Amino acid sequence: MAEMNLQIRMAAHPVGFPKSSDFEIGESSIPDIGEGEMLLKTLYLSVDPYMRGRMNTRKSYAAGVQIGEIMIGRTVSEVIASNDSDFAVGDIVWSSTGWQAYGVAQAKGVRKIDQALAPVSTALGILGMPGMTAYFGLLSVGQPKEGETVVVSAAAGAVGSLVGQIAKVKGCRAVGIAGSDEKVNYIVDELGFDGAFNYKTATDYKAELQRLCPDGVDVYFENVGGTITDAVFTRLNMYGRISVCGQISQYNLTEPEMGPRIMGGFISKRLRMQGFLVGDFSDRHEEGLVEMAGWLKEGRLKYREDIVEGLVNAPEAFIGMLQGDNIGKRLVKVG
Amino acid sequence: MAEMNLQIRMAAHPVGFPKSSDFEIGESSIPDIGEGEMLLKTLYLSVDPYMRGRMNTRKSYAAGVQIGEIMIGRTVSEVIASNDSDFAVGDIVWSSTGWQAYGVAQAKGVRKIDQALAPVSTALGILGMPGMTAYFGLLSVGQPKEGETVVVSAAAGAVGSLVGQIAKVKGCRAVGIAGSDEKVNYIVDELGFDGAFNYKTATDYKAELQRLCPDGVDVYFENVGGTITDAVFTRLNMYGRISVCGQISQYNLTEPEMGPRIMGGFISKRLRMQGFLVGDFSDRHEEGLVEMAGWLKEGRLKYREDIVEGLVNAPEAFIGMLQGDNIGKRLVKVG
After folding, report:
1. Domain assignment present for B79
2. Shortest CA gap A175–chain B (Å)
3. A270, B277: Cβ pair inside 8 Å?
């Protein structure tokens, strides 16, 4: 083929918020495939907060991206050529071929997408990693009970918007914290949250939480960290649970932030806090997928996609997402 | 009776560390008992860190002591008179009659002590609240597995000294943090901890932990808070657990202390942190008691009592305990 493979590589480890110059656009030839491999053409690329951690020099829970390497990322792709008898040309698959127009994968890194279920892009959102993150992080880690109050931060994002809706499915009061009035209106009016506040305009988080959570907070689904989290802690009920999914307010700090020590409250309120990654539940992925797809079909879950066109715009799509300019799942439409 | 009832009352809410003038010694007549009540003569009074929280004006997990009220506390007493057919004069009982020479109790607040098991004072230590705190806090909250490393702070105290020994019973590596060389020697040489360090002379807690916990820390039994805890957090392993029992370094602060934000590590290491009170396990008390008594009988658990003579010395015994001048369980011998 004469066509080239467009790729976005990491040019520098970001200091603070990533900037355009931390990325570089490159090209390579479209690779040949070997035994058991397939060639995938990227249709959609997912950009997610966790990628910021992979760009650091310091060790995270997974290997970091090195300078000059292609940025990592989950993708929805079409099979263009296949040396694996389980996959045919034209299949639409979920893979992790990263920020490039074409990628090579083996069966173990690929999953066929059931196109009857929902649009294929949902394999990167509600029926993919963000959906399973919300599902297992809320239900298995947070363990909300009917009638309890669930608070979620980054509530209009890919994960948060689902956390509140799953809480509603389970008979809980769902309260969101988000960064614009538009987001607040979206999650309350369209998604059915019981309440929400805009942390960028609110002057007293505790008062907002008191207003929106008159019976206190039983489960906090933590996406952000920092002063928002400090305020939620003051409103936690006895036997409250904190499901720690993300810390987006902290990812771009150049110096670690100090905060109030929180352990005293763990004793007096018998709190339980647990961190998780969606991969911890990979053996239960099918269970989560079936249940989320069922709720989606029944109209009990809604989702929005925030799609940026063109792989060359992936860096801006990613940087903007870290700054909260998306509502719902941010995707890059590549192919 | 002509004898009077000596009582120690709270004279003032302490600011920072309690001082003698926060207590006052009083007398009252020895009360008569009504229907279903018994008169108890205090033999031993337990002084424990949790009492500091009860002296505050601010709300804790239990009602606070008011100015002029008798200080609360668990006791071992002898039944002097009884209007309850289940209790006879001469019985030795566990009760919560507080800092006084005589107290009145009903059956629901009293438990007969099996004198065949161990000296009766152990009902306030290894076979009482501190023992059950160590047992359930380590085994049910911390959930150590054979071969794992357990670190405990305030390791020569009533609870900490048992935590490390229970960890050894369960086949774990036990490492203690304590406040004097004498304490370090005691828990290593006498109690069989695998290692310990003196946080008052150590200059680099992380280096000490690295030396003593070459495979990292799987379970941290948290009694102290502050910079010791910060150091332990840096050494926690994947899927580490933090059992939050106490925060003695924080109880006497006049202003809340700031510290590093810890939630990021919860995600990357999938940590689980849970606070507890021994009362959460009251329905399993018998199970804990039987197992601890068995290990004691087998010589697998040792204990030391640090006994101060005379109820009038209870304030100093308590203040000194908060400053760590005890090794093992601090008790006041009253009767």
Report:
1. yes
2. 21
3. yes
Q: Are residues A109 and A195 in the same domain?
A: no
Contact B247 A259 (CB under 8 A): no
Closest by alpha carbon to A150, among A141, A136, A138? A138
The pLDDT score that the predictor gives to residue B59 is 63
Q: Do A265 and B275 touch (CB under 8 A)?
A: yes
**Distance, CA of A321 to CA of A325 (rounded, Å):** 6
Domain with B198 in it: 129-279
Most confidently modeled of A56-60, A62-66, B96-100? B96-100
| Interchain proximity B244–A261, CB inside 8 Å | no
A54 plus A136 within the same structural domain? no
Q: Give the model's confidence band at B84: pLDDT under 50 very low, under 70 low, under 90 confident, else very high.
A: very high
- State how far residue B268 is from chain A, nearest Cα, in angstroms: 5
Strands A173-178 and A149-153: parallel
pLDDT in tens, A155-192: 999 999 999 999 999 999 999 999 999 999 999 999 99
Alpha carbon of residue B332 to chain centroid: 14
> In the numeric block, which tokens belong to residue B34?
């009504």
Please give the full DSSP string across B18-62, using - where no structure is assigned: --GGGEEEEEEEPPP--TTEEEEEEEEEE--THHHHHTSSS--SS
For residue B284, tell me if it sits in a domain.
no
Separation in Å, CA B256 to CA A189, B106, B226, B264: 40, 39, 11, 22
What is the pTM (predicted TM-score) of this model? 0.93
Chain A positions touching B258 (Cβ under 8 A) are 258-261
> Quick one: closest CA in A to B241, which residue?
A274
> Which member of A53, A245, A258 has the closest CB to residue B261?
A258
